[in-house]
Amino acid sequence: MDTIRESGTPEACPTTTPVESAGRTTPTPLDEAAQWLQEAADAHPGLVLPPAAARALELVAESTFNPAAVAHALQADPALAVPALQKANGLLFTCRGDNLESALRRLGARGSRDVVLTVATLRSLRVTTDPQLGQWLRQRAEATALTASVIDLVLGSTRPDAYAAGLVHDLGWALGHAVLAEQPAESRPVLFADARLSREVVSRCHVALGTRVAAAWGLPGAVIDAVGEHHGSHVRGDSVAAVVRAALATINSLGVGSEGPAFEISALAALGLSGDAVAAVPTAAFGTLRRHGVVQDRRYDGGQTVGDRERRLLRYLGSA
C-alpha cells in the first residue's frame, strides 16, 4: 500500500499554510476538508466500545479484581472472548491459562485490562472503507503497544499505562474513516474522492479524533494525554507519551507498520536512556513482536539472529 505518514496535534485538525490573497487568508482545499471532517465527527456517535468489553473494563477497574466476573462479561460476546484468551496467553508466555478465567487471574487487573483493550481496539480498527489501511493500523497498534512495554521494562516498569497508550494511540484514524463511511459521497468535499488526499486529511485530524475516543472509552488520563501528545514536539521525558513516541520511532526503524523515518535515537535519549540500553531496545522489541506474530522475519539488522541480540538485552537487564 502507499506509504502512510502521520501528522497531527491534540488541539484541532492542523492544516496547510493558508493562501494569502489581497490581505485575506484563503483556506486551502485541505483546510476545508479537515474542517468538514472535524464538524462531521462532532455529530458522529464515535467509536462505541462493544458492550461486553465496556462491562469487562468496568469490572477490571473495581477495587477488588474478580477474574471470573471479567471472563463472564467477555464470554457474552464470543467474537471477543476467543481472541481475548489468545491475547491473554500471548502476554503470559509461560503458565498459560486453560480457559479465559484462569488466564486473566494470572495476568491480574492491569494485564486483564490490557487484554480487553487489545481485542476491543483491534475490532475498532477494522476500517471498512479501506481494508488495507485497517490491516496496517492493527499491526501498528499491537507493535506500538508491545514495544512500549519493552521500553517500560528497560525503564524499570515505571509507566504501567504504556501498553494501553501504545495500543489506542491511532484510534482517531478509525473514527475518521467511520465518519466518512456514514457520509454520502456527494456530501463530502470533492478532495475525499482521492484516496491519497483522503488519508492525508484523516492523518491531520487523527490525534484530535483519537483523544476524543480515548476519553469516551474512560481510559486513564495518562493514556488520553499520550494519544493527544504522541506527535507533539514538547513531550515530558517522564510521560507515557514519551514512551509511545520512542516506541513509534523504534517500530519505524524496524520497518513495522510503515516506511517511517530512520530510528530516532533522540526519542530514547529523551527518556534518559543511553548506551547499551538504547541499542537493546530495538533488539528486544523485534524479538517480542516476532514472538507475538506481529512480524514474521527471524532476523534483524546486519544478519545477526534475534536470539543473539536478545541475550545482549538480558545481560543488560541482569537476567542472564
The total count of helices amounts to: 14
The low-confidence runs, each spanning 5 or more residues with pLDDT under 50, are: 7-11, 15-19, 259-263, 298-320
Strand line-up of the largest beta sheet: 1-2
Based on CA atoms alone, the radius of gyration comes out at: 20 Å
Shape: globular
Mean pLDDT: 82
Q: Give the strand tally.
A: 2
End-to-end CA span: 41 Å
Secondary-structure element string: EEHHHHHHHHHHHHHH
Classify the beta-strand content into a percent band: under 5%
Helix content: 55-70%
Largest sheet: 2 strands, antiparallel
The structural class is mainly alpha
Question: What features would you describe in this structure?
Answer:
A hairpin with a 2-residue loop joins β1 (19-21) and β2. This protein has 320 residues and is an all-alpha fold. Strands 1-2 form a two-stranded antiparallel sheet. The N and C termini lie far apart (41 Å). The chain has a domain at 128-317. Helices cover 60% and strands 2% of the residues. α3 (67-75) crosses α5 (100-124) and α13 (276-291) crosses α14 (306-317).
Features of this protein?
globular; disordered C terminus; single chain; 320 residues; mainly alpha
Task: Summarize the model shown.
It contains 14 helices and 2 strands. The protein is mainly α. Strands 1-2 form a two-stranded antiparallel ribbon.
